[in-house]
Amino acid sequence: MKLFSWLRPAALTLTVAQQQRLDQLPSAPTLGECSLREQRWVVVDLETTGLNLNKDVVLSIGAVVIEDGAIDFSQQFEQTLQRGNHKLGPSVLLHGLGPSAIAAGSDPRDALLDFMEFVGDSPLLAFHAPFDQHMLGRALKDSLGYRLQHPFLDVADMAPLLCPQANIREAGLDDWINWFKLQVFERHNASADAMATAELVLILFNRARMQQIHSPLNLQQRLSQWKRRQQSHSF
Q1: CATH number for the domain running over 34-233
Q2: Quick check: pTM over 0.85?
Q3: pLDDT for 44-84, tens place per residue?
Q4: CA 152: distance to chain centroid?
Q5: In what residue span(s) does the Exonuclease domain sit (predicted)?
Q6: Rounded to a whole number, what is the distance in angstroms from the first to the last CA of the chain?
Q7: What is the rounded CA–CA span in Å between residue 48 and residue 230?
Q8: Would you call 29 helix, strand, or coil by DSSP?
Q9: Cα–Cα distances in Å, from 12 out to 39, 107, 140, 192?
Q10: Within a 13 Å sphere around the CA of 220, how many CA atoms are in the beta-carbon half?
């Protein structure tokens, strides 16, 4: 045994078909100068066993596509991941994914490959994106050895940036849904939350264009500037 070889993680066990699918995933995109309308966006939401970034795991993935300035109802994604050895915490009371639903879920490797094929070379949007980005990135690394490098924009930052008059920073998704008076009939499962977030995004993209933010790259730059200002004001 080589020195410290026991410290290395066990080799990932992918089938030939899974490895082929992994090898064929497109390269991560960079945000460009096309219009917000022309860009294909994937709005994602995750349900997890809890909020611990290092111990909890992804239970389900819901996503919807925004393309040509509208939600494309023909492009939706929803999968529950099979998890055999993870205890369910209080979060099950919100998302409703009980043991039977999780036991009937998909092999995490196949589910994650399905999702990344659905994403393709599109950037991602999520409400409180750092959490989803971290959890999804860790799931992809642990299950597939895949490094997530797709741009991930935070709708929770976009909203106060583009609508400062709302004066509801640190707000949750429900706060913004209520502020815009959106009619959302279902919440707290991955696909429903992704759809609610996508409806909010459409309003925010319209506000962005009114403020001369016309491209994905420009939006990313303005978000970065806004976050730096917020951080400087907090000291």
Answers
A1: 3.30.420.10
A2: yes
A3: 999 998 889 998 999 999 999 999 999 999 999 999 998 87
A4: 7
A5: 40-210
A6: 51
A7: 29
A8: coil
A9: 34, 14, 11, 32
A10: 17
